[in-house]
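During the reporting period the student researcher (J.K.) took over the structure-prediction task from the postdoctoral fellow and processed the backlog of single-chain submissions. One of the processed entries is reproduced below for the supervisory committee.
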Amino acid sequence: MLAISLQSGSNGNCIYVETNGVRLLFDAGICGSRAASRLEAHGRDIRNVDALIISHDHADHISCAGVYQRKFGLPIYITPMTLQKAAREDKLGKLSNVNHFLAGEKLQFGKVSVQTIPTPHDAADGAAFVISSGGKKLGILTDLGHVFRELFDVISSLDAVFIESNYDPEMLAGGPYPAFLKKRIRGPQGHLSNRESAELLQSGVKLKWACLAHLSESNNNPRVALKTHLEIAGNRLTFYTAGRHMSSGILTV
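J.K. obtained the following structure tokens:
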């Protein structure tokens, strides 16, 4: 199994996963040409992707989904509530190949399964994902809201994970955001801090690597996020950070 973060953060999210002959994209928050060129740089053609799976209705995850379908012919997998919310806000345009799932259901693509996990993030019907193939499991766990009980069991089952590490509490408190937005970010429907992410990863007894994702531009930076994780988790696993303006390398599971 291999994975590439094509971009991660409030300016757009998209993750590519390839395993057992199946090619999947998770979220479409960056423009189609950028996604295509970043995949091409790694020797992949976006037109060969088997499914585009959407986590929730926020623009940084869904804004270009309609373009991916119309330009590249990708089938979209999305919950009905997420589709309805996006349609009301006119985020997608005309769609022709839509497949519904309910958060909590399992999707199957050949020998590859994608377990969807409901999240308490402040979206219409958010989901996180666990991709399973050949005895390996990769998690895509961002926009989680807060650390809910089921996450500990999920983390303990994974071999690798993209995990939200959105903000440093001190940087958020002293940063430029208005009070209502600070409250939303650290609230039960917001985002995970670096410390919350690092403490959650302590449950990952099988983890080989964790890629810290969805880092805030104003309230975090890779150096601070990595420092917090290394202080708590030590060098037990390898850490990467997903860039806000570039793709990662190819990460293997």
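The committee noted the following: The radius of gyration is 17 Å.
J.K. will present the remaining backlog at the next meeting.
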